[in-house]
């Protein structure tokens, strides 16, 4: 299980005073107001970044980091991930999981058949959809609903599912 969770990606500089536009990868962008610090993943190192102030614009978060006061200091971090440690993460409700914890789980049917590996989670308006890479090279799309997802065992690295009639035919 990953100790770091991605909460956003720097998309560009915002103005000339060191602010950045961040595309939030968390369900609730307003949580940036509560964060005092994030970790910048440069690809080579992790740099703690103290958040000086937060603004919101359309679907983006505008962040200003302490000590970064002009565009030249911050522009080089475009397309870099912003992370938090797991202890900074929001509390999950029962049967809620971080996507990063689900990716890579072995997916097994309630009939005992090994279907494949969970490779992606599509976030739709109604419910998430789990994308399973099957052994035959095809993909199986499973709605993340109680009728389909029977059990998720992160410690065992497996998910038990019921494949609704017709889903294997798609």
Summarize the structure.
This protein has 170 residues and is mostly beta strands.
| Level-2 CATH architecture of the largest domain | Beta Barrel
Number of extended strands: 12
Please state the average pLDDT score. 90
- Residue stretches low in confidence (pLDDT < 50, at least 5 long) are none
Descriptive overview:
With 170 residues, the chain is mainly beta. It has two domains: 2-86, RimM (Elongation Factor Tu (Ef-tu), domain 3); 97-159, SH3 type barrels. 5% of the residues lie in helices and 46% in strands. The chain contains two helices and twelve strands. The protein has helices spanning 71-74, 99-102, and strands at residues 4-14, 19-24, 37-41, 46-57, 60-65, 81-85, 106-109, 114-122, 129-134, 139-143, 149-153, 158-161. It has a six-stranded antiparallel β-barrel with strand order 1-2-5-4-3-6. The protein has a six-stranded mixed β-sheet with strand order 10-9-8-7-12-11, with no helix packed on it. The protein is elongated. The two termini are 32 Å apart.
């Amino acid at each position: 299980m990953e100790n770091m969770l991605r909460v956003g990606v720097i998309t560009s500089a915002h103005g000339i005073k060191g602010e950045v536009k961040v595309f939030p990868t968390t369900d609730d962008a307003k949580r940036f107001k509560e964060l005092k610090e994030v970790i910048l993943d440069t690809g080579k190192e992790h740099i703690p970044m103290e958040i000086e102030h937060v603004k919101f614009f359309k679907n983006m978060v505008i962040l200003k980091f302490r000590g970064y006061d002009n565009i030249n200091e911050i522009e080089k971090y475009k397309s870099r991930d912003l992370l938090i440690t797991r202890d900074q993460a929001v509390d999950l409700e029962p049967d809620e999981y971080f996507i990063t914890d689900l990716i890579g789980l072995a997916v097994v049917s309630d009939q005992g058949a090994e279907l494949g590996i969970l490779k992606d989670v599509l976030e739709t308006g109604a419910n998430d959809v789990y994308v399973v890479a099957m052994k035959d090279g095809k993909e199986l799309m499973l709605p993340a609903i109680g009728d389909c997802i029977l059990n998720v065992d992160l410690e065992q690295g497996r998910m038990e599912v019921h494949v609704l009639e017709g889903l294997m035919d798609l």
